[in-house]
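Give me C-alpha coordinates for this 249-residue protein.
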Amino acid sequence: MTVYFIGAGPGAADLITVRGARTLADCRVCLYAGSLVPRELLAECPPDARLVDTARLDLDQITAELLRAHEEGHDVARLHSGDPAVFSAVAEQMRRLDAAGVPYEVVPGVPAFAAAAAALKRELTVPTVGQTVILTRVANRATAMPEGEDLATLGRSGALIVLHLAAQYVDRVVAELLPHYGADCPAAVVAYASRPDELVIRGTLDEIAGKTKEAGVLRTAVIMVGRTLGAEQFRDSHLYSPERERHVC
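Here you go.
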Protein backbone atom coordinates (compact mmCIF):
# COMPACT_ATOMS: atom_id res chain seq x y z
CA MET A 1 0.00 0.00 0.00
CA THR A 2 0.96 3.66 -0.27
CA VAL A 3 0.16 6.69 1.87
CA TYR A 4 -0.75 9.73 -0.24
CA PHE A 5 -0.32 13.09 1.45
CA ILE A 6 -2.85 15.14 -0.51
CA GLY A 7 -3.17 18.91 -0.45
CA ALA A 8 -6.91 19.52 -0.09
CA GLY A 9 -6.61 23.19 -0.99
CA PRO A 10 -7.51 26.32 0.98
CA GLY A 11 -11.17 25.57 1.65
CA ALA A 12 -13.36 25.38 -1.45
CA ALA A 13 -13.96 21.74 -2.29
CA ASP A 14 -13.42 22.33 -6.01
CA LEU A 15 -9.92 23.68 -5.47
CA ILE A 16 -8.43 20.25 -4.92
CA THR A 17 -6.32 19.25 -7.93
CA VAL A 18 -7.55 16.71 -10.48
CA ARG A 19 -4.74 14.39 -9.36
CA GLY A 20 -5.74 14.84 -5.74
CA ALA A 21 -9.39 13.99 -6.42
CA ARG A 22 -8.47 10.95 -8.50
CA THR A 23 -6.12 9.68 -5.83
CA LEU A 24 -8.74 10.20 -3.16
CA ALA A 25 -11.21 8.15 -5.19
CA ASP A 26 -8.79 5.20 -5.25
CA CYS A 27 -8.02 5.03 -1.52
CA ARG A 28 -9.93 2.69 0.81
CA VAL A 29 -8.82 4.66 3.87
CA CYS A 30 -8.90 8.44 4.34
CA LEU A 31 -7.46 10.41 7.24
CA TYR A 32 -8.55 14.04 7.31
CA ALA A 33 -8.55 17.02 9.67
CA GLY A 34 -12.25 17.55 10.26
CA SER A 35 -11.90 21.16 11.34
CA LEU A 36 -10.02 22.20 8.19
CA VAL A 37 -10.93 19.93 5.29
CA PRO A 38 -14.34 20.49 3.64
CA ARG A 39 -16.71 17.60 4.19
CA GLU A 40 -17.73 17.69 0.52
CA LEU A 41 -14.34 16.28 -0.40
CA LEU A 42 -15.10 13.05 1.42
CA ALA A 43 -17.73 12.31 -1.21
CA GLU A 44 -14.80 11.61 -3.55
CA CYS A 45 -13.81 8.60 -1.43
CA PRO A 46 -15.06 5.10 -2.30
CA PRO A 47 -18.48 4.39 -0.72
CA ASP A 48 -17.00 1.76 1.59
CA ALA A 49 -13.90 3.76 2.56
CA ARG A 50 -12.91 4.01 6.22
CA LEU A 51 -12.91 7.71 7.18
CA VAL A 52 -10.85 8.87 10.15
CA ASP A 53 -11.11 12.41 11.50
CA THR A 54 -7.67 13.29 12.92
CA ALA A 55 -8.75 16.54 14.61
CA ARG A 56 -8.43 14.97 18.08
CA LEU A 57 -5.64 12.49 17.35
CA ASP A 58 -1.99 12.95 18.28
CA LEU A 59 0.96 11.91 16.12
CA ASP A 60 1.21 8.43 17.64
CA GLN A 61 -2.48 7.77 17.02
CA ILE A 62 -2.28 9.04 13.44
CA THR A 63 0.77 6.87 12.79
CA ALA A 64 -1.05 3.87 14.22
CA GLU A 65 -3.91 4.42 11.75
CA LEU A 66 -1.46 4.61 8.85
CA LEU A 67 0.33 1.45 9.94
CA ARG A 68 -2.98 -0.36 10.43
CA ALA A 69 -4.00 0.44 6.86
CA HIS A 70 -0.58 -0.71 5.66
CA GLU A 71 -0.99 -4.04 7.43
CA GLU A 72 -4.44 -4.44 5.87
CA GLY A 73 -3.08 -3.66 2.41
CA HIS A 74 -5.07 -0.47 1.83
CA ASP A 75 -3.87 2.73 0.16
CA VAL A 76 -4.39 5.76 2.39
CA ALA A 77 -5.37 9.31 1.50
CA ARG A 78 -3.97 11.65 4.15
CA LEU A 79 -5.81 14.91 3.45
CA HIS A 80 -4.13 18.13 4.59
CA SER A 81 -5.52 21.61 4.11
CA GLY A 82 -3.69 23.87 1.67
CA ASP A 83 -0.47 22.43 0.31
CA PRO A 84 1.64 19.84 2.18
CA ALA A 85 4.82 21.83 1.50
CA VAL A 86 4.17 24.50 4.15
CA PHE A 87 2.84 24.41 7.73
CA SER A 88 1.28 20.99 7.24
CA ALA A 89 3.15 18.87 9.83
CA VAL A 90 3.75 16.14 7.25
CA ALA A 91 7.51 16.04 7.88
CA GLU A 92 7.19 14.15 11.16
CA GLN A 93 4.62 11.78 9.64
CA MET A 94 7.00 11.03 6.76
CA ARG A 95 9.78 10.42 9.26
CA ARG A 96 7.61 7.86 11.07
CA LEU A 97 6.73 6.15 7.78
CA ASP A 98 10.38 6.05 6.73
CA ALA A 99 11.24 4.32 10.00
CA ALA A 100 8.44 1.79 9.47
CA GLY A 101 9.35 1.16 5.83
CA VAL A 102 5.95 2.37 4.56
CA PRO A 103 5.96 4.00 1.09
CA TYR A 104 4.33 7.39 0.56
CA GLU A 105 3.85 10.06 -2.09
CA VAL A 106 2.91 13.73 -1.99
CA VAL A 107 0.16 15.31 -4.11
CA PRO A 108 0.48 19.11 -4.02
CA GLY A 109 -2.48 21.42 -3.44
CA VAL A 110 -3.45 25.08 -3.66
CA PRO A 111 -1.88 26.92 -0.70
CA ALA A 112 -3.81 29.37 1.44
CA PHE A 113 -1.64 32.34 0.43
CA ALA A 114 -2.46 31.74 -3.24
CA ALA A 115 -6.18 31.69 -2.50
CA ALA A 116 -5.78 34.88 -0.46
CA ALA A 117 -3.97 36.60 -3.33
CA ALA A 118 -6.79 35.55 -5.65
CA ALA A 119 -9.35 37.03 -3.27
CA LEU A 120 -7.38 40.29 -3.24
CA LYS A 121 -7.02 40.16 -7.05
CA ARG A 122 -3.31 40.83 -6.67
CA GLU A 123 -0.08 39.46 -8.07
CA LEU A 124 2.31 39.23 -5.17
CA THR A 125 5.42 39.77 -7.29
CA VAL A 126 5.29 43.04 -9.23
CA PRO A 127 8.15 44.28 -11.48
CA THR A 128 10.36 46.95 -9.83
CA VAL A 129 8.17 46.92 -6.68
CA GLY A 130 8.70 43.50 -5.13
CA GLN A 131 9.95 40.13 -6.34
CA THR A 132 10.17 38.26 -3.05
CA VAL A 133 7.47 36.63 -0.92
CA ILE A 134 8.21 35.48 2.63
CA LEU A 135 5.94 32.83 4.12
CA THR A 136 6.18 32.66 7.88
CA ARG A 137 4.29 32.64 11.17
CA VAL A 138 4.74 33.91 14.71
CA ALA A 139 5.69 31.86 17.73
CA ASN A 140 3.48 31.83 20.78
CA ARG A 141 2.09 28.58 22.15
CA ALA A 142 3.35 26.69 19.08
CA THR A 143 6.90 25.58 18.30
CA ALA A 144 9.47 28.35 18.75
CA MET A 145 10.82 30.06 15.63
CA PRO A 146 14.43 29.32 14.64
CA GLU A 147 17.01 31.98 15.41
CA GLY A 148 17.00 34.76 12.81
CA GLU A 149 13.44 34.10 11.63
CA ASP A 150 11.68 36.55 13.93
CA LEU A 151 9.54 39.25 12.31
CA ALA A 152 11.94 42.04 13.20
CA THR A 153 14.72 40.26 11.26
CA LEU A 154 12.59 39.17 8.31
CA GLY A 155 11.03 42.62 8.06
CA ARG A 156 14.34 44.26 7.27
CA SER A 157 14.11 42.89 3.74
CA GLY A 158 11.00 44.93 2.98
CA ALA A 159 9.67 41.97 0.97
CA LEU A 160 6.01 41.06 0.91
CA ILE A 161 5.40 39.02 4.03
CA VAL A 162 2.62 36.46 4.45
CA LEU A 163 1.82 35.28 7.96
CA HIS A 164 -0.10 32.08 8.65
CA LEU A 165 -1.66 31.28 12.02
CA ALA A 166 -1.15 34.83 13.26
CA ALA A 167 -4.49 36.67 13.14
CA GLN A 168 -5.00 36.59 16.89
CA TYR A 169 -1.58 38.20 17.31
CA VAL A 170 -2.15 40.99 14.80
CA ASP A 171 -1.18 43.74 17.29
CA ARG A 172 2.21 42.11 17.78
CA VAL A 173 2.66 41.64 14.03
CA VAL A 174 1.99 45.32 13.37
CA ALA A 175 4.30 46.48 16.16
CA GLU A 176 7.21 44.40 14.85
CA LEU A 177 6.76 45.33 11.19
CA LEU A 178 5.98 49.05 11.50
CA PRO A 179 9.65 50.14 11.84
CA HIS A 180 10.51 48.40 8.55
CA TYR A 181 7.42 48.87 6.38
CA GLY A 182 6.02 52.17 7.59
CA ALA A 183 2.51 53.07 8.74
CA ASP A 184 1.23 53.64 5.20
CA CYS A 185 2.31 50.24 3.83
CA PRO A 186 -0.59 48.29 2.29
CA ALA A 187 -1.79 45.35 4.37
CA ALA A 188 -4.59 42.82 4.18
CA VAL A 189 -6.15 39.98 6.12
CA VAL A 190 -8.02 37.24 4.29
CA ALA A 191 -10.05 34.82 6.39
CA TYR A 192 -11.54 31.58 5.08
CA ALA A 193 -10.07 32.17 1.62
CA SER A 194 -12.10 30.58 -1.19
CA ARG A 195 -14.95 29.52 1.14
CA PRO A 196 -18.50 30.89 1.04
CA ASP A 197 -17.80 32.88 4.23
CA GLU A 198 -14.56 34.38 2.87
CA LEU A 199 -13.73 37.73 4.45
CA VAL A 200 -11.28 40.25 2.99
CA ILE A 201 -9.96 43.12 5.09
CA ARG A 202 -7.82 45.80 3.44
CA GLY A 203 -6.01 48.75 4.92
CA THR A 204 -2.66 50.20 5.81
CA LEU A 205 -0.31 48.63 8.32
CA ASP A 206 -1.22 51.11 11.05
CA GLU A 207 -4.96 50.38 10.76
CA ILE A 208 -5.14 46.69 9.86
CA ALA A 209 -5.06 45.49 13.49
CA GLY A 210 -8.08 47.55 14.44
CA LYS A 211 -10.03 46.42 11.38
CA THR A 212 -9.15 42.78 12.01
CA LYS A 213 -10.30 42.88 15.62
CA GLU A 214 -13.44 44.78 14.69
CA ALA A 215 -14.29 42.00 12.22
CA GLY A 216 -13.71 39.39 14.93
CA VAL A 217 -11.09 37.46 12.93
CA LEU A 218 -8.99 35.22 15.17
CA ARG A 219 -8.00 32.20 13.07
CA THR A 220 -8.14 30.52 9.65
CA ALA A 221 -6.67 33.65 8.10
CA VAL A 222 -3.49 34.96 6.53
CA ILE A 223 -1.99 38.40 7.06
CA MET A 224 -0.20 40.08 4.15
CA VAL A 225 2.00 43.15 4.38
CA GLY A 226 3.95 44.68 1.50
CA ARG A 227 4.10 47.36 -1.17
CA THR A 228 3.04 45.05 -3.99
CA LEU A 229 -0.46 44.89 -2.46
CA GLY A 230 -1.03 48.48 -3.50
CA ALA A 231 1.19 48.76 -6.56
CA GLU A 232 -0.41 50.61 -9.49
CA GLN A 233 2.37 52.50 -11.29
CA PHE A 234 4.98 49.92 -12.19
CA ARG A 235 6.98 48.84 -15.19
CA ASP A 236 5.50 46.13 -17.42
CA SER A 237 7.15 42.74 -17.10
CA HIS A 238 9.90 41.93 -19.58
CA LEU A 239 8.15 38.60 -20.21
CA TYR A 240 5.75 40.07 -22.78
CA SER A 241 7.73 43.13 -23.78
CA PRO A 242 7.92 43.85 -27.54
CA GLU A 243 11.63 44.50 -26.97
CA ARG A 244 12.21 40.91 -25.90
CA GLU A 245 13.76 38.71 -28.56
CA ARG A 246 11.53 35.77 -29.42
CA HIS A 247 12.42 32.60 -31.26
CA VAL A 248 9.83 30.50 -33.06
CA CYS A 249 10.56 26.79 -32.82
